[in-house]
Write a structure and sequence with these properties.
alpha+beta, five-stranded antiparallel beta sheet, 5 strands
Length: about 130
Amino acid sequence: MIDYMQFDVMLFDEIIATVNLKPKNGGTPYVVNYITGFNKQFSPNMEGHITLEELEAWLKWRVFPSSRVNADELLDALGLNAYNKWGIVRKTHGVMADDEIWLRFKGETLTHKDVCLRKELYYPEESSIQE
């Protein structure tokens, strides 16, 4: 069963952070970063609680903007009837075209190859087989 309340932040197939949205001890989401360097870290601290505002700010960078020209078409393609950042991230795994960071929810066995938008760049041998 997939647990959308816990996920790993992935860089290719490497776990760079784990996030628990509802930790057992209560409170705000809890993050453990496994890499240093704020550019790739989920949060500025190596481990600890983050605010819902910090979570929302991070989610903002993993979804298309609601003002995008074809936002309604994208929502329809995702099976969503309203703009919801968390709903979009659950469907897209937070995959973006300009980096290789993505989310793997607890219980999933996906790899980078499964969610990658640029397979011809990272997995050219498989792209040429399909042609």
